[in-house]
Amino acid sequence: MFEYEFMQRAFIVGTVLAVILPLIGLPIVLKRLSMMGDTLSHASLAGVAVGLCFGFNPLLGSAIACVVAGLSVEAIRSRLSAYHEISTVIVLAASIGLAGVFTSMTGGGSSITAYLFGSIVTIDDFELYLVLGVAVVVVGLYALLYDRLYLSVFDPTSAALMGIRPKALNFVFSFLVAISVSIAAKTIGSLIVSSLLVIPVICGMRFARTYRGSLAASIGLSLAFVYAGLTLSYYQNLKPGSVIVLIAVAVLVASLLVRRR
User: Fold this and answer.
1) Which example biological process does GO assign this protein (predicted)?
2) How many whole angstroms separate alpha carbon 16 and alpha carbon 36?
C-alpha cells in the first residue's frame, strides 16, 4: 500500500486532519455548537462550486468561503444574543443556496461529486502543502489560545474578569474552525467532515475524565479511525471518508453500550 505515492500523501493528510479536527472539535462540543461544523461544511461546498465556476483551485475557494461563513456566524451571534443558534441556520441556508446556484453555472454537478464524499487519494502538491500550512497555523494559534479557550468554556464569567475578551476570542476560534473544515472538504468530504469533527471528541469524552485527557483520547481515536478507514478503503476499493466516519460511528455506538464507571 505504501509503495504508491498517492497513499503516502493520503496518510500524511489523514494524520494532519486527525490531529487538528479534535483540537477544535472539543471546544465546539462543550460549547454546544456542533451545528457549526455542519454549517461550515456546506459553506465549503459553496466555495468549491465558486472555484469550479470561475476556474481557480476549489480547495482555495473552500477555504475562503469557510472563513467568510465562520466570521459571519460569529457576527450574527453577537447581534442576536438571545438566539445564538439562529446564526448557524442563516449561514447554512445561504451556503446551500449559493452552492446550488454556482453548481448549476458549472454545467452540471458531476465535477463537484468528489467534494461531497471526499477524495483523499487524489490530492495534488498544492493541496498537500496547503493542508500542511493550515495545520501549522491551527496548531500554533490553538497553543496560544489553549488557556483562554479552556477558561471561556468552563467559566466565562471568570474569563471576562481576567481580561479575556470573549468576542475577539470567538472570532479567532471561528477562524480556526473555518480553515480546518475547509481543508477537510476535499479529503474527507463536505457532507461528512462535521461528523469527524464531533464523533471522535464524543468518543474521547467517554473514555477520559479531564479536558486534557479527553483531548488526548480524541486525537488518538481520530488517528485510529483515519488509519483504519484508509487501509480498509484501499483494499476494498471504497470511499475513504465514508469508511472513516462509519468506523467512528461504530466505535461511538459500542462505547455507548458499555456502561462507564
Assistant:
1) response to zinc ion
2) 21
What one-letter code names the amino acid at 255? S
Distances (CA, A) of 55 to 58, 59, 71, 133: 8, 12, 25, 23
Q: Which of 222, 178, 157 is nearest to 196 (CA)?
A: 222
Domains assigned to the chain: 5-195 (1.10.3470.10)
Position 77: which residue type? R
Instruction: Give the residue carrying C-alpha cell 488517528.
Output: 223
pTM, to two decimals: 0.80
Contact 187, 14 (CB under 8 A): yes
Cα 70 to Cα 85: distance, rounded to the nearest angstrom: 13
Contacts of 203 (CB under 8 A, 6+ apart): 217, 218, 221, 248, 251, 252, 255
State what percent of residues in the chain have pLDDT above 70: 89
Choose among 141, 149, 137: nearest CA to 212: 149
- Check: CB of residue 169 under 8 Å from CB of residue 78: no
Q: Quickly list H helices, the chain.
A: 5-30, 35-54, 58-79, 85-105, 113-117, 125-154, 156-161, 166-187, 193-207, 211-236, 240-257
What is the pLDDT confidence band of residue 126, given thresholds at 50, 70 and 90? confident
Across the range 93-112, mean pLDDT stands at 73
Percent of the chain with pLDDT over 90: 8
Per-residue cell: 6: 498517492
Query: Considering the chain, what is the average pLDDT of its residues?
Result: 81
Q: Which of 17, 80, 81, 68 is nearest to 40 (CA)?
A: 68
